[in-house]
Amino acid sequence: MKQVTDLDGLLGYQLQRSHMLVVDDAREALKIHDITPAKLTALLLIRASPGCDQTALGRALETNRSSAMKLVNFLVDRGLVERRPGRDLRTNALHLLPGVEDRIQEMLKALSESDARMSERLTSEERARLLSLLRKLGPAKNKRLKRRANE
Amino acid sequence: MKQVTDLDGLLGYQLQRSHMLVVDDAREALKIHDITPAKLTALLLIRASPGCDQTALGRALETNRSSAMKLVNFLVDRGLVERRPGRDLRTNALHLLPGVEDRIQEMLKALSESDARMSERLTSEERARLLSLLRKLGPAKNKRLKRRANE
DNA sequence: TATTGTTATACTCTATAACTATA
DNA sequence: TATAGTTATAGAGTATAACAATA
Q: What is the pTM (predicted TM-score) of this model?
């Protein structure tokens, strides 16, 4: 098959390819820890804000309460997180279970090894430059066509 | 919610965020043309290799025959592509329908406008540098943990 | 035997809407 | 009324396995 030259110069297309490459590797590296990149992100958010509720978690992940619920269910089922009584009777306070910090350290180690493997053809200067350029992406003002769904 | 500082320095995390931002905008920009970025890619591959069969299309998209079939079904249903008799009785030859070239031009226009909007905070030098850095991502040799599934 | 297209099926992710219990 | 959690449901997207027709 011939290449599709119309897309080669587009940032979105290259971003798509690089993203797939890197996320597939991260997913594979996290597999032995029985977690995916997205679920690890949720776990790290809870670790960073102990006692948060599910709605706040959903907001931070730019998704809705229903999806946040599924993530928390997964983390609870794996013995990583527990739901404690929250600030009122409607609300859960999410907390890590004891011993999970060690497991998180192992997950982060696997993740950063994958990250290093994916950027080994870049010098550390190039890697830093790439990170800062990626952070500059997005519309200048508030021109985004549509925000992510959030109920 | 506090930020998750463990992830900030990881290429994969920043790539995930940038990818979501850019792809969401592209998806929204293509919505009036009733197509998604992935389906447009399939359409452009067929345009670049007229007469190709579905298996080749699947290989080019790093997916399987079943998924390629669904993409072609979509493109046929929208009047963009037709299945003609192929090189033998098992095989289809995929071709664009007449007039579709004009519609593709409009789709590409919407896509490149979205792309420009997403990179408007970058100078053209920075944009070019970002593209070339993205292309350098990936393992040095053939260290990838697992290739994408392909039956 | 191998390949192409096809169908059936299933699993994940994500989204919406409605329900309940609280506030 | 509004909010938090929950449940049911539905739609993409993607994967596997099996089948018929053909090579």
A: 0.94
